[in-house]
Specification:
heterodimer, A: Immunoglobulin-like, 6-stranded mixed β-sheet, about 40% strand, B: two-stranded antiparallel ribbon
Chain lengths: ~260, ~300
Amino acid sequence: MKRTFMNLSRYMSLAAVVLLGLALLPVPAAQALTCSVTPDIIPITLTYHGAQLSISGQSASGDDLIVTVTSEPADTALKYKEKVGGLVWMKKGTLEFKDTPRIYMVYSTDELSRILSAAELNHNLLGYEALRTHIRIEDSDGNPADAKWFDEYLKFKKEEKVYDIQEGRVVRQHGEEGNTFQVDVDWPYQAPPGVYTVEVLAARDGKMVDRSSTTFEVKSVGITAFLSKMAFDQAGLYGIMAVVVALFAGLAVGAIFKKGGGSH
Amino acid sequence: MYMYLPIALTSVNYLVVMGLGLGVGLLSGLFGVGGGFLMTPLLMMIGIPPTIAAATDANQIVAASASGTFSHWRLGNVDFKMGFYLLIGGFFGGAGGVQVIKILRATGGADFMIKMTYVIMLGLVGSFMFVESLHAMRKTKKVTTTTDQVSSPKKKKRGFFAALPMQIYFEKSGVTHSAIVPLVLGTFVGVLAAIMGVGGGFLMVPVMIYMLRMPMHVVVGTSLFQILFTCIEVTYLQAYSNHTVDFMLALLLLVGSVFGAQIGTVLGKKLHGEQLKILLSIIVLAVTVKIVLELVMEPSILLSYAGGH
């Protein structure tokens, strides 16, 4: 009897060790969130007309995902038009849009409002309504401007293709590598050179549970880089070059045409 | 098909841009105007920021007007003496105009005044030229039926101008004026051009035709000669102080415009002075109507980048 009891306690401690070991092993369900972007450098060449970005990574199964592509927030000054004298539309002044990202792209596995609560969306600057409460608009005297200008700002940025929200665009897959996600992004050529941040947020039961981010760079190369650098660093020489090339081209074509025929 | 512009930071279809250059260059060779009043808004339509559109257009006009001046010079159609006096006047006028703008900007409401000046000047010049050349064409028709001698009624109504000192004979144009006249007129156009932010070709051409009484073909060549120098100055200053000249965009435009200017010059030889005048007046009036419509109709987007007209 005593022996049986000892055997049982041995088995139990063995089971405890096995259970502990199992608990310490990574559980597939709690897969860590990762994120990567290809390519991580977009070169602006002479024939550049935007690019295709692929954002992918691994995530825990069942989590909803929100992928954002943004730039460092900055202040943007824009001219605004208003009706003058009840008749003509004129540029009336400048509005300063404070703390605005130059690029704002959001992709998700579901509708944003179903993934996170309004407070969470606001806190993480997700969705146009969150931006609306975040961006301050001031006139040239520093007074807050009418809220309608946010709608105009959005229209302006969407027209430039640099602000975009597509809900349900992120695709999830369950394969050998676990749970993966992927989203293809049409990168607009209107986005200026710079470093951009890609971030993926995982949400469960209306709450954010994990986040992961990476960056990629859009940069001028070759003749594009050479010219934009020269225009600022050697402005005088650049101006002379522009004039001389234009003069030479004009005179050369004038001379060639004359030889070709058509005298008076 | 696409080319990325390093200063404008945008991508354009180069065939479209070269086509624009060809079209505006043609007008340049034909009428002696730079065409900035057409080119700048067209460039803005394809997504070029306003300040870069205006500065790069000046660079492109250097090529078109060099090409046009060269062929008009070969045809004996450039009055260098007259061009020189107008140029001096224009230089001081331009500098003065820039100061006027500064004062207006400081007092506020400048943009409204600039826009109105633009519309009124375009409208007046266009209507006057249209009516006058229509009149002249009818008269010419009647005259040719009775006599072969076709000449414009010049050398009259010069009372005040003739009384001024420093009378000079301009051989190429076949007119005598006091040196003060082209200097003052050049200054006047320079001031207006600077206020409106345009080269002023469409103002200078009518001034040469109606006030200096120069023959239409010499007007075109001389105007181009003058525009060439103005645009060299503008290109350099814009590149140097504002960094707004996009060399790639200018190259694409000038590839089209230098050929356009040549075609315009050849075409111009086949047309009568009155026909040229009436065509130019129609273009000027069309641009006026377009600007008026833009002013009156609600824009689809109420925000824009700074700069431009």
